[in-house]
Amino acid sequence: MPEDHIRHPPLLDQSEPPRPDVVQPRHAASLVVYRSLGAATEVLMGMRGAKHRFMPNRLVFPGGAVDQADLSAPCATPLSPATEHALRKNANGHLAHGLGIAAARELAEETGLSLGVPPHLHVLEYLARAVTPPGNPIRFNARFLVVSAEHVSGALGGDGELENLRYYSLHEALALDLALPTRRVTERLQTWLAMSEAERAAQTHSVLLRDRGWHVE
């Protein structure tokens, strides 16, 4: 057969690099524990070690990915209607429960503090959601929940995953080199703390951190 009749495979276009697969974000929960000391407010934070693949050497709130077992784990009291409503804007009932359980579980594992065994979820309040941008090798769809320190018990310790674990004043934390999501959530916490309970209850929307800014959802 003449060569001009042979079908050759098309040449690859070398001008465009292959597109990497988009990593789907994992559902996660972080818990912001706060306490008031006079006019100052402090939040519980710790430094992720240098060996962590996600946000190493960064000051963060306790938290982590939702495990399958979290979806059906028992609780002493369920999420409040307001918190469940906020979570269920982007989750079904099982996942909303699992997010509350994950927040309590990660708090106990990483800090040694407890919401009870099984945990009391009704004390958790909703703050915000943040999604790791596409292109990152590790991504999370994280919900940030809030609880007053008066609702937790135990002594600070944990599994060692968070270093320099202690309460930081909001002023001190914001003066540090925080990762952008942590900084935005801390700023959002300041706004939330300035609201009255009636103002918080009257909120009809929640906020999502995406593309470096807040979006209403």
How does this model look, in words?
The protein is an alpha+beta fold and 217 residues long. Strands 1, 2, 3, 4, 5, 6, 7, 8 and 9 form a nine-stranded mixed beta sheet that branches. The protein has five helices and nine strands. It has one domain (34-167, 179-210): Alpha-Beta Complex (Nucleoside Triphosphate Pyrophosphohydrolase). The model has no long low-confidence stretch (mean pLDDT 89). It starts with 25 loop residues before the first strand and ends with a strand.
Give a short summary of the structure.
With 217 residues, the chain is α+β, with helices and mostly antiparallel strands. It contains 5 helices and 9 strands.
SSE order and pairing:
Blueprint: E1 26-37, E2 40-48, E3 59-60, E4 63-65, H1 81-87, H2 93-111, E5 125-131, E6 140-148, E7 162-169, H3 170-174, H4 180-194, H5 197-201, E8 207-210, E9 213-216
Parallel strand pairs: 1-6, 5-8
Antiparallel strand pairs: 1-2, 1-4, 2-3, 2-7, 5-6, 8-9
